[in-house]
Structure formats: structure tokens, C-alpha cells
């Protein structure tokens, strides 16, 4: 799977303001910013992203996905601090 394919999958199932992906085709690191994360705990945010991938995690198309997930406000505050 390419970064563009993974980005399209996530974007199709989750409205995102920002997505960054790095990886080798099986092991990925993502930074995802979505308003849908508002009011959700970290585990709920991760579950929401995993839901967009469906069975691709079980079929090993995406072997590993590490994530940093932010609301738009959290992302703006982080960007301002950097």
C-alpha cells in the first residue's frame, strides 16, 4: 500500500483537516487532525481511525499504524508552540 492509498482510505472514512504519513508500505506513522476527535479519549480516536481501514489491518495490508491524533484546536496550539 502506498502513502497516497492509505491517506485516501482514512480521508474517505474520516473528515480530516490534516494528514501526514510516513512509512515503508507496511509500517506507518500518521499525524491526523479531525474535528471528529472533539470530546473523544485517545483510544476512541484511534478506534475511529482503525474503523476507516476496515479489514486491511487484519489482512496485513497495513501491518502497523502508529498515530498522533489531534483536534483542530489541539493542532493549532501545538503548531503555535513549535
From TrEMBL:
- What is the protein name for this chain? BolA family transcriptional regulator
Domain of life of the native organism: Bacteria
Membrane-crossing residue ranges in chain numbering:
none
- SUPFAM superfamilies per the record? BolA-like
Q: Which family does it belong to?
A: Belongs to the BolA/IbaG family.
Amino acid at each position: 500500500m502506498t502513502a497516497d492509498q492509505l491517506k485516501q482510505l482514512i480521508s474517505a472514512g474520516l473528515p480530516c483537516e490534516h494528514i501526514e504519513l510516513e512509512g515503508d508500505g507496511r509500517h506507518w506513522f500518521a499525524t491526523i487532525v479531525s474535528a471528529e476527535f472533539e470530546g473523544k479519549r485517545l483510544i476512541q480516536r484511534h478506534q475511529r481511525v482503525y474503523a476507516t481501514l476496515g479489514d486491511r489491518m487484519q489482512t496485513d495490508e497495513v501491518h502497523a499504524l502508529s498515530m498522533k491524533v489531534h483536534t483542530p484546536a489541539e493542532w493549532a496550539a501545538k503548531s503555535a508552540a513549535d
